[in-house]
Write a structure and sequence with these properties.
The complex is a heterodimer of chains A (181) and B (119). Chain A is an alpha+beta fold. In chain A, 31% of the residues lie in helices and 30% in strands. Chain A has a 6-stranded antiparallel β-sheet with strand order 1-2-6-5-4-3. Classes of the chains: A alpha+beta (181), B mainly alpha (119).
């Protein structure tokens, strides 16, 4: 029995290693309430496997493969509800409490004082001047989304892929607002 | 001497087996013989050279089928992982856009407020 517990603990530690934030246990209950749930958990092995199935072609295909190869994990939980106020803000705080300085720094923070307003935060983790992790916490009245990406990824990389592979076309950087589709 | 004889007679006297003993012994002996026979028959089947080749071919096919199944499973996993990566990047890009829209909205509101205070 003790050995089984130890094995489970070790397995948990191995699983937790690349994903350096923990999703709250309350997410399971949210999934039951939500109309639409997106759950993506890709560790380094799965990303490596996915990279093998990406084309070696030129241009965007090549860029996408390079991006995926630089990643160590992608973890996404997204819940869409039919009505407002279906999730407690404590669950958002539970995630944000794990994203503390000096490791994590919020780069965009929108917080509505109104109850049921939009809240969005983007956190970057930097190592040696490069972004080594991105966490997006978006709490809208009817939707809660948490994106946690581990590995080297610049937002510009995602923007550059915009318009391809189903990724929305997006302009990134100051003064790009007009080009939005 | 009489006492020794008496002891020997008592020790060597015939004892009747419990009821059903003989049936149980026969049953066990026949089932063992049957099991041995089954194995022997199976070994005999593969003793003939042609059958040996057939058995090797069947084993080879089973191994190839296993490898094929494993590759197919891996291919499916890879394609699923690829789809998930694309979906993840799509969601990430959408979330960046949402955050950016919020910031733009705030900037516009601040500009209006600033212009109002200047006038």
């Amino acid at each position: 029995m003790k050995r089984a517990i130890l094995m489970l603990a070790l397995a948990g530690a191995v699983w937790a290693a690349p994903q350096d934030i923990r999703f709250p246990a309350g997410f399971e209950k949210l999934a039951e309430k939500a109309d639409e749930v997106v759950t993506i958990s890709l560790d380094a092995d799965m990303l490596g496997l996915a990279a093998n199935f990406l084309s070696n072609g030129e241009g965007d295909q090549k860029k996408l493969k390079e991006i995926v190869k630089g990643l160590k994990g992608i973890y996404i939980r997204s819940f869409e509800f039919s009505r407002e106020g279906q999730y407690p803000m404590e669950i958002v705080e539970e995630i944000e409490d794990q994203l503390k300085a000096p490791e994590w720094a919020p780069v965009i923070s929108v917080r509505s004082k109104k109850k049921g307003g939009d809240n969005a935060r983007i956190y970057f983790r930097r190592e040696n001047g490069k972004i080594s992790g991105i966490t997006i916490v978006s709490a809208e009245p009817k939707q809660l989304t948490v994106v946690h990406i581990v590995g080297l990824l610049e937002p510009e990389d995602v923007a550059r892929l915009g318009g391809n592979f189903g990724i929305p076309d997006m302009s990134w950087g100051p003064g790009d607002g007009e080009g939005e589709k | 001497m009489d006492r020794l004889e008496e002891q020997l007679r008592r020790a060597l006297q015939r004892v009747e087996p419990p009821p059903g003993f003989a049936e149980r012994v026969f049953e066990r002996a026949s089932s063992q013989a049957e099991a041995q026979g089954w194995w022997r028959r199976l070994i005999e089947v593969f003793r003939a050279p042609r059958r040996r080749w057939a058995a090797a071919a069947v084993a080879g096919l089973v191994i190839l089928a296993g490898i094929g199944y494993e590759r197919e499973t891996r291919r499916r996993q890879g394609e699923l992982a690829r789809e998930q990566v694309l979906e993840a990047l799509e969601i990430t890009a959408e979330q960046f856009q949402i955050a950016r829209r919020h910031v733009q909205k705030l900037n516009a509101a601040w500009k209006v407020a600033e212009e109002g205070s200047e006038q």
